Amino acid sequence: MSQLQGILTRLKSLQDQAKETEQAQRFFEVEGVKKCQVTYFNKTETFELEVFNDKSKSSKFQFDNIDMIAIEIFDLLSA
């Protein structure tokens, strides 16, 4: 299974988890270092991607498409 497929699987699992709790969060990391956090909001059916930077504040981005956020996460983890 490719890394991108694994990311998509985790995002779909996040959506399923949010059906019970209205929102769910998951971290993505590389070698034990957290690169980002994804929150899925069931009510609005949107994802929020929080990117952790080494020296500056974190940045947040909104997505309503699972494929687009998966590509962003893939790029972050590959950098």
TrEMBL record:
Residues 4-31 form a coiled coil. It comes from the Bacteria. Pfam families: DUF1797. Keywords: Coiled coil. This is Uncharacterized protein YkuJ. It comes from Peribacillus deserti.
